[in-house]
Design brief:
The chain is built from 13 helices and 18 strands. A hairpin with a 2-residue loop joins strand 14 (about 395-400) and strand 15 (about 405-420). Helix content is about 35%, strand content about 20%. Mean pLDDT is about 90; it is low at about 375-380. Helix 1 (about 15-25) packs antiparallel against helix 4 and helix 2 (about 50-75) packs across helix 10 (about 305-315). The strands form 5 sheets. Strands 2, 4, 14, 15, 16 and 17 form a 6-stranded antiparallel sheet that branches. A 4-stranded antiparallel sheet has the order 10-13-11-12. It has a 3-stranded mixed sheet with strand order 1-3-18.
């Protein structure tokens, strides 16, 4: 099972009270302290070889997604269930996320989606539950802004200061250092500018300031500039190459579309393109998870490695309206084993855990969401059912006001994937009975990558 997690060995006789107080002092200086409990979880670590195997499997899953997209672009017909998924996609089940001014960006050559080079376009933060049978990808989040990275980076740094692990734990795996490396590789080590369009929000400004300062502290002359929608437009440099980095979600753009359109119109003439082509926004839809989970609907071009990655990483996932009678009856009868989600849900909106509903509520929900779009129906859209992943049990050390105690818990672990590489890991406590509180108030665990040899 990759990544293999181990608790970091804590020195015997450590002063638990002093450790907790030092952590709280550091946490209080962050901009997100209110979003997490203030008790301290002892760090975990994974060996670099384990992380490399995990990365290879996630890259194979991304390639499988790209092959679905390629078949759609070239109009390949594969018959059977494929046609049902293609029909849903054409009907808006996996909408092209329409960025103003950018439109579909520069056309993406379909052959690129089948090439080895496509992995350089992998950028995202999959949501992964560490289940009893191994890690399971419950949302891919491919082609997303990889937001909130300052949180796991702060946790990584604080744990490095407080627990003082040996250098082999610190050589790699710091999330923001990995992000800085990604942009340096994108620029091929030469000076450039990276323009980040962003929603105009005071909280975002406070959180981004230290992140941008860290990224700009590099020896390559890679300069990151954040442009907040609605701020006065300023002259732009043209003496170095520039990239447009879609740093916020299309959901933020659509809430302030007019001002984002003006900002993007100002930026586009000086940039050579987006860090990730707009067309790959299609892969954000959870329709693709159902498409690949259904083995009868997969592209015929998938390799054995890609089939194995899908089988290992993706829990059983199906489109609600495509369920046959037997499958629908199983889902109806065993509500505690399933989760209902909208294909374009964002930040856990439109997500329902069957185990948290009564049988009548679950039955009513399946019936209403299974009817499809209707006039004036706020719940209209495409919905998927996903088998609930029960987290594996971990035993971690937690520093609390009552002292150091062992905590029996589940974990979720989200890798930051940029340019086809795993750059760092965000890990947090996951309750055995799912609750949206685990998303609204995440309890982070520092995660180191131990270099071997």
């Amino acid at each position: 099972m990759d990544p293999v997690l181990q608790p970091l060995t804590v020195a015997p006789g450590v002063d638990a009270r002093a450790l907790l107080d030092a952590y709280r002092a550091r946490l209080g200086r962050t901009t997100w302290a209110h979003e997490t409990p203030d008790t301290l979880m002892a760090p975990v670590w994974s060996a670099a070889s384990s992380v490399a195997r995990f990365e290879a499997r996630l890259v194979a899953l991304f390639r499988a997604h790209c092959k679905v997209l390629h078949a759609l672009l070239v109009g390949a017909s594969q018959g059977g269930p494929w046609e049902e998924y293609a029909r849903l996609q054409r009907g808006g089940g996996a909408k092209s996320l329409d960025w103003p001014v950018l439109g579909e960006d520069v056309a993406l050559e379909p052959s690129l989606l089948l090439s080895d080079d496509v992995t350089r376009l992998l950028f995202g933060r999959p949501d992964i539950v560490l289940g009893a049978d191994g890690p399971k990808v419950v949302e891919t989040n491919f082609d997303t802004a990889v937001g909130g990275q300052e949180r796991p980076d702060d946790i990584w740094r604080m744990a490095a200061e407080l627990f003082t692990p040996s250098p082999d734990f610190l050589a790699t795996g710091r999330p923001l250092a990995g992000m800085r490396d990604y942009f340096a590789e994108l620029a091929e080590g030469s000076p450039c500018q990276v323009h980040w369009p962003m929603k105009n929000d005071d909280t975002v400004r406070r959180e981004l300031a230290p992140l941008i300062a860290t990224l700009n502290d590099n020896p390559h002359g890679v300069e990151h500039l954040v442009h907040y929608a609605g701020d006065p437009l300023t002259p732009l440099r043209t003496d170095v190459p520039s990239w447009l980095h879609r740093a916020c979600s299309i959901y933020s753009v659509n809430r302030d579309r007019e001002r984002f359109a003006a900002l993007l119109a100002h930026l586009v003439p000086v940039v050579r393109g987006c860090t990730v082509p707009v067309l790959l926004s299609l892969l954000e839809s959870k329709l693709f998870l159902a498409w690949l989970s259904d083995s009868a609907a997969r592209p015929v071009t998938l390799t054995a490695e890609e089939h194995a990655a899908v089988d290992a990483l993706v829990p059983w996932t199906r489109v609600l309206t495509l369920l046959d009678g037997a499958a629908r009856e199983r889902v109806l009868r065993n509500r505690g084993d399933f989760i209902l989600k909208k294909t374009d849900s964002h930040q856990a909106k439109d997500v329902f855990f069957g185990c948290n509903l009564s049988q009548d509520e679950w039955s009513s929900l399946l019936a209403s969401r299974g009817r499809g779009a209707g006039e004036g129906d706020a719940a209209a859209g495409l919905w998927i059912l996903q088998e609930r992943v029960r987290p594996r049990e971990f035993h971690l050390l937690e520093y609390t006001d009552a002292g150091a105690v062992e905590r029996r818990t589940g974990l979720s672990c989200c890798p930051y994937l940029m340019g086809g590489r795993l750059r760092g890991l965000e890990t947090w406590v996951t309750p055995f009975t799912p609750s949206l509180e685990m998303i609204r108030r995440m309890h982070f665990v520092a995660h180191f990558i131990r270099r071997e040899g």
